[in-house]
Amino acid sequence: MKHPGVFQVTAxxxxxxVMASADEARGSIQEKRGGWVERIDEVIDVKPGxxxxxxxxxxxxxxxxxxxxxxxxxxxxxVDAYTEEEARLVFDRYSVDIARDGNDVEVITESEGRxxxxxxxSIRVVVPHNYNVDVETGGGGIDIGDLVGDVMx
Length: 153
Prior knowledge:
Strand order of the largest sheet: 1-2-5-8-4-10
Shape: elongated
Radius of gyration: 18 Å
Order of helices and strands: HEEEEEHEEEEEE
Helix content: 10-25%
Distance between the termini: 57 Å
Largest sheet: 6 strands, mixed
Structural class: alpha/beta
């Protein structure tokens, strides 16, 4: 019986690690007005008639509807920090996970560990006019535009 070599085991572990973290979205980080902003902007290719499920533990949520295919998700994280490294440490403790299942999109954002008051977040999602929406936030307002579909907030 043949046993996998060190290279094969290492390769399998690396592939498993990449696959396990593939859902977490990362954005570009820029300095802005004395602080730092990480902006995640992703478009998920889906057809009308699906459902957006969004669960966030903080920040305001805006959902708009447009004549389009796909769901566009824009998450902005803002923090007052002196350096980019300090900002990254804060941004890394607030995860944004995006998943697609057929025509449905799920977005889960959550703070890991102790929440920092200096982190501000906002989420804007643009869905097709004919789309269902189920959103929750642990802090902040929810604004849902004119769409055709079931809305739970």
